[in-house]
Specification:
4 helices; transmembrane helix; mainly alpha; membrane; transmembrane; elongated; Spore cortex biosynthesis protein YabQ
């Protein structure tokens, strides 16, 4: 294997270390130490390993050498020491310029659709209330009677031995 090919594979594996550290940092930042964040991180590690192996497979037909592990560790340390802040800034910039406007537009479209669907629904509810208006007084009377009856039953059985007692 020629030296330039070894240098290319070394840089590729350092790049996978940088990207793995960035992905794990993103997951830990977004997850915030929750159980879901931990579960996502546990699922991400094998996927990152497969991604690193696919890079290794593309660069060197999957031949693994000890300096590949050292190159990945170098990439992780490089990310933590020098690239942490630029990656975070790029993430905030991406969120501010792309993700938030898209989410705003989706919310706006959802609100318009909900409003359009809500108009006939409000009309139907208005008609149902209008049709049920003559029955409101009898329904209130029945509710009042049922409430009075339940209070009477509770008073009558207040000292009942099967009543749940507080400790």
């Amino acid at each position: 294997m020629i030296v330039s090919h070894q240098l290319l594979s070394l840089l590729a594996m350092a790049g996978t270390g940088i990207l793995a550290a960035a992905v794990i940092d993103m997951i830990r930042t977004a997850g915030g130490g929750t159980r879901a964040g931990t579960a996502i991180e546990l699922m991400a590690w094998p996927l990152l390993g497969l991604a690193a192996f696919s890079v290794l497979f593309a660069v060197r037909s999957g031949e693994w050498r000890l300096y590949d592990l050292l190159a990945q560790l170098l990439g992780v340390l490089l990310y933590e020491s020098a690239l942490h802040r630029p990656f975070r800034f790029a993430g905030r910039l991406l969120a501010a310029l792309i993700i938030r406007p898209v989410l705003f537009l989706l919310g706006l479209v959802w609100g318009i659709v909900a409003f359009i669907i809500g108009i006939p629904l409000r009309l139907v509810l208005f008609l149902v209330r209008l049709l049920l208006r003559p029955f409101q007084k009898p329904i209130r009377a029945v509710r009042r009677k049922a409430g009075n009856l339940s209070r009477k039953v509770r008073r009558k059985f207040a000292g009942h031995p099967l009543k749940k007692r507080s400790a």
